[in-house]
Amino acid sequence: MTSTFHSIETARRSLFTQTAALSTTGHNIANANTEGYTRQRVNMKAASPIEAYGLTNSTVPGQLGTGVEFTSIERIREMFLDDQYRGENSASGNWSIQSDTLDKLEAIVNEPSDTGIRTVLDNFWKSWSDLSKNPEDPTARKIVVQTAESLTDAMNYMSTQLSNLDRDLSTNIDVKGKQVQGYLSSIADLNQSIAKIEGMGDHANDLRDQRDLMTDKLSKIANITVLETDAGYNISLGTRQLVQGQAVTATVDSAFLNTAYASGDLKAGEAYGMIFSSKTYVADYKKQLDDMANTIANGEVKVTIPAGSTLPAGTTVFKDSEIVNADGTKTTLLAGAAVPIPLTGDLKTTVKGLNGLHQLGFAMDGSTGRPFFTPSVAGEAITASNLRLNPEIAADPSLFATSLRATTDTAGKVSVIKGNNTLALLFSNMKDNNTFTTADGIKSGTIGSYLSSMVGQLGIQSQEATRQTSNADYLVEQVNSRRQSVSGVSLDQEMSDMLVFQHAYSAAARFMTTYDEMLDKLINSTGTVGR
User: Fold this and answer.
1) What is the pLDDT, as a whole number, of residue 528?
2) Beta carbons of 260 and 276 less than 8 angstroms apart
3) Nearest Cα to 76, choosing from 493, 390, 365?
4) Residues 226, 228, 233, 239, CA torsion sign
5) Is 123 helix (H, G, I), strand (E, B) or coil?
6) How does DSSP assign 287-321, residue by residue?
7) C-alpha pair distances (Å), 355 with each of 293, 352, 360
8) pTM surpassing 0.85?
């Protein structure tokens, strides 16, 4: 049988439920701009009726309802969109780092410009051309020294900048490792807290938001895989388990990330972009710069020594060469053969870079040419970082070899024929010599073409990285928009819901007042008729 006060209880339940709905709406509104917050909803259902169907049920027709109650407060979120977002976020992190690294490389190379290596190279070749006009001019010789030192300084500086960029990337990889470790620890702690709260039957909505936010940030750094279990999130990087329930199962640092990169487990994210940029872009351009420096000094280059030239005694060819005589006949010199003095025809031969060419001539004091470029540490292979002008030549510009004509008296003293500029002309023509070959024999061309190919490659890679970054950011934005349409707080929707719950609360309150008046009539007024 229905209680006299049954409807009071119905009204009370309605008031409590609408209060919970209003409070949740207020919570949503308060966190409309909170990063990672997920919209929450109160789940309502009709309370169980007074009597269930059975043999002893009342004969009163129908089941009298007992009002409303809320069963839970849940987040409105789709795991599928989360997985999509994290995948695109990892790709965006990778390409943003690659694009940033290539931008820095473009700033280091600084081409085309009026202050880049191309300008320095042009000045170097021009100084030799000017020297060929008056090979005994001390001013022209000093200018050659200055332009040569400018070239070596530019090479050294660019190599240092590349090394600094590589070091910065390595440092940032270590920083990212520490960030990952911090996120993993926080996620494991949140797994534990969520398990405790939800073990008592509640929904740990706000803690779940924090955990998802940490996971989103983690996905920016590395391509993680997230699996939700009863113990919480299990997070892995490829085949490597990072978090399992309430335990962090890996120590992530620079070495861990590099190992994961080498094994193929690390495939995207900022950490991948840093390691890839270091091992691919920076290493490649550093090698190309080293190759160019070594090619200038010691790379193979084909030259033609004019007939009548006098080379230092004992000069041999290190590759098969030929002498083209005035009558058109040719004389072949096998590798290791001595060069006849003086030359009876034009000698078409190969020398080892500017060093080899310089050693074919004579300085003003009659001494044979020295290596033009040397490494800063004797015995090392020449690279962009250690390239320098021979210190002896830098200290005494008269030691530049510009002549290929000399005489030897009976006492064996060598005297340079003054005014001869043959070697200086050969040096000035090296700018357009298209037979420079790297020491490993991979590339051939002018020194300028080496630089052009490097600059062109960098420009294409930078353009591609910028395009990929733009595409990745667009996809992240699109997925995030879809996710926010489901999980984000819409103030218009919340205001509409607030009015609905407010009116429901007011109606429930009015219903309670009405029923209270009915009870007052029943209790205080019944039975007093006729008194």
Assistant:
1) 60
2) no
3) 493
4) negative
5) helix
6) HHHHHHHHHHHHSEEEEEEPTT--PPTT-B-SS-E
7) 12, 6, 9
8) yes
pLDDT tens per residue across span 161-217: 999 999 999 999 999 999 999 999 999 999 999 999 988 888 999 999 999 999 999
* Three-state SS at 208: helix
Q: How many other β-carbons are positioned within 10 Å of the β-carbon of residue 135?
A: 22
CA distance 54 to 377: 101
- Structure-token match 């190969």, residue found: 350
Q: Is 468 helix (H, G, I), strand (E, B) or coil?
A: helix
Tokens linked to 507: 């109606």
Residue indicated by tokens 């090296």: 430
pLDDT reported for residue 156: 95
Cα atoms found within 13 Å of the Cα of residue 426, Cβ hemisphere only: 29
How does pLDDT run across 321-334, given as a tens digit for each residue? 898 888 888 889 89
Query: Of all helices (H) and strands (E), which one includes residue 499?
Result: helix 491-520
CA dihedral for 244, 249, 254, 256, sign (positive or negative): negative
Q: Mention every residue, 6+ apart, whose C-beta is less than 8 A from residue 523.
A: none
Structure tokens at 55: 């043999």
In this structure, what token pair is assigned to residue 371? 């290596």
Give me the pLDDT at residue 152, please: 95
| Helix, strand, or coil (residue 329) | coil
